[in-house]
Design brief:
The protein has two domains: 46 residues; 84 residues, Winged helix-like DNA-binding domain superfamily/Winged helix DNA-binding domain (Arc Repressor Mutant, subunit A), CATH 1.10.10.10. The protein has six helices and no strands.
């Protein structure tokens, strides 16, 4: 995967790849669910990555990425592997994220992130959560 100067994945490269994949899927007679999944991925990549927390602190782009992977059900170790960082770095990002969101647990952090618009409802695991 191509990376930007700061070592982060190059989002424009990823978007180009998703676009090429979508074009390929358009030529397949019966691609099944793949075009829907490609469109959902494209939408997630284009979603805003930074939103202010209620306490006036903004989540960093990396904290948002870690939070989205957490919402996808990955463990801290799996997130570390996926992002090519140490498990301790994942813990540091999660501590900062929980602090900024005013959360003490994974569920609280995911609910708060959804309420703030950092996570879309379809990015949360399990059945749709009702507000309240």
């Amino acid at each position: 995967m191509q990376r930007s100067q700061d070592g982060q994945p190059d989002i424009f490269h990823v978007l180009r790849r998703v676009g090429l994949a979508t074009d390929t899927l358009d030529r397949i007679p019966e691609p099944g669910i793949l075009p829907v999944r490609a469109a959902a991925l494209h939408g997630r990549l284009l979603a805003p990555t930074r939103r202010p927390a209620a306490f006036g602190q903004e989540l960093s782009e990396r904290e948002v990425v870690v939070l989205r992977l957490l919402a996808a059900g990955l463990s801290q170790r799996e997130i570390a592997i996926q992002l090519y960082i140490s498990p301790n770095t994942v813990k540091t990002h999660l501590r900062a994220t929980y602090r900024k969101l005013g959360a003490a647990t994974r569920a609280q952090a995911l609910d708060r992130a959804r309420d703030l618009g950092v996570l879309l409802a379809d990015q949360l695991p399990g059945p749709a959560r009702s507000p309240g």
